[in-house]
Design brief:
Blueprint lengths: L2 H16 L17 E2 L5 E5 L4 H6 L6 H12 L8 E4 L13 H18 L3 E5 L1 H7 L5 H4 L2 E4 L10 E5 L2 H6 L2 H10 L2 H18 L9 E2 L16 H7 L6 H5 L3
Parallel strand pairs: 2-3, 2-4, 4-6
Antiparallel strand pairs: 1-3, 5-6, 5-7
The chain binds uracil (URA) and iron/sulfur cluster (SF4).
Iron/sulfur cluster binds next to helix 4.
């Protein structure tokens, strides 16, 4: 898919979210928060749900937790405009309470479809509700700072998922802040690994093999995100020669 097509598909999902009444969270919302970022990205960050400021502005991670997310990205020389940021639920839970299981289930299709459009190499989850969508049964205290293959049902069957604590947790519990920054150092390494796995799958023309859980070592020099380094199929498409990336990759 070309980036313009990806963006149009994301805009379409955003328009559906804006009109959505599938769960009770629509009752108290000011704005829906579908998520935002570049359609060309290889990396998607998934939080929990909009808070007070996000609900007002219709944009994800614009409050205090968002400032911390910006700092985390800057610590590996990344920035918000190179990634896509979204949430498990697209409307604010009243009083910032946890989202309920039925609300998460009602909203799941939107995140799944966003991931199908973006086809990211890496999904970084912020907090346990987000982690649970990609890594069933994992406990955040045990797996934070590590990555593994994302579960296919998430919508990102070719992605690795990297688990982190939620930035808001570090605002409540100061000791977690250093943990977040330490864990963040492993994210670029996970992206490098994810790229290598996808390149190997492409070369073999085979579906991705199961990937064993792996601890992520610290990257001495984080690789930059280069949207123009997306799979070669995009480059081909941009050059005006349409090709079907799925058939080339032999995944479906
Ligand atoms: N917390 C979240 O999980 N998501 C946001 O968008 C803001 C704060
Ligand atoms: Fe719809 Fe999701 Fe908002 Fe619920 S949280 S009303 S499912 S967009």
């Amino acid at each position: 898919m070309r980036d313009a097509e990806r963006q149009a598909a994301l805009d379409g999902i955003g328009a559906e979210v804006a009109a959505c009444t599938r769960c009770r969270l629509h009752e108290g919302r000011t704005r829906t928060v579908p998520g935002e970022g570049t359609a060309a990205t290889e990396v998607v960050f998934v939080g929990e749900g909009p808070g007070f400021n996000e609900d007002r502005q219709g944009r994800p991670f614009v409050g205090q937790a968002g400032s911390l997310l910006d700092e985390l990205l800057a610590s590996v020389l990344w920035s918000r405009d190179e990634v896509f940021v979204t949430n498990v639920v697209k409307c604010r839970p009243p009083g910032n309470r946890d989202p309920e299981p039925d609300e998460i289930a009602a909203c799941a299709q939107y995140l799944t479809r966003q991931l199908e459009v973006l086809d990211p190499a890496l999904v970084v989850t912020l907090g346990r509700f987000s982690m649970a969508r990609f890594r069933t049964g994992a406990r955040i205290g045990q797996v934070h700072g590590t990555f593994r293959a994302a579960e296919a049902a998430s919508g990102a069957p070719r992605a690795l998922t990297f688990s982190m604590y939620h930035p808001a947790a570090a605002l409540r519990q100061a000791s977690l802040k250093q943990t977040l920054f330490t864990d963040m150092q492993g994210v670029p390494t996970a992206l490098t690994e994810a790229r290598a796995l996808r390149a190997a799958d492409q070369a073999r023309g085979e579906p991705p093999a199961a990937i064993a859980p792996a601890p992520s070592p610290v990257a001495p020099e984080p690789p930059a995100i280069r949207p123009d380094s997306k799979p070669a199929t995009d480059v081909t498409a941009d050059a005006g020669v349409e090709s079907d990336p799925t058939s080339q990759l032999g995944l479906f």
